[in-house]
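Action item from last meeting closed. Structure (123 res):
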């Protein structure tokens, strides 16, 4: 008489475990930013590089479309536009003749941005 009740409880327990694991996986993927927009290909906005300054502050180079790069200061409370760079200001005439698909390094973007604003960054 007790055998059907025990097997029913085993099935319910296994089902609860599977649903719990699925909910945990969903929560972790959502927390890491794996949503539909993050998986979308062909976006106009692309993060070129980022550099941590302190544990909660960083510099981020973001490309908008084909010809504009934004240098952003990112902290826990806000995002600040530090510099707006046009594609022509990012590369010299020698660089333009080379492969345009080659990625620019974050250090180059930061150097050019600070030179444009008259600032100097020592390493």
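Sequence:
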């Amino acid at each position: 008489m007790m055998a059907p009740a025990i097997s029913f409880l085993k099935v319910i327990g296994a089902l609860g475990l599977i649903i719990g694991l699925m909910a945990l996986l969903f929560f972790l993927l959502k927390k890491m930013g794996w949503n539909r927009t993050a998986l979308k290909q062909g976006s106009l906005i692309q993060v070129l590089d980022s550099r941590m300054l302190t544990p909660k502050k960083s510099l981020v180079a973001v490309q908008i479309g084909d010809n504009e790069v934004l240098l952003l200061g990112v902290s826990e409370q806000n995002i600040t536009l530090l510099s707006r760079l046009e594609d022509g200001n990012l590369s010299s005439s020698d660089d333009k003749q080379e492969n345009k698909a080659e990625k620019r390094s974050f250090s180059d973007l930061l150097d050019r941005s600070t030179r444009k604003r008259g600032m100097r960054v020592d390493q």
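Note appended to the action item: The chain has a mean pLDDT of 76.
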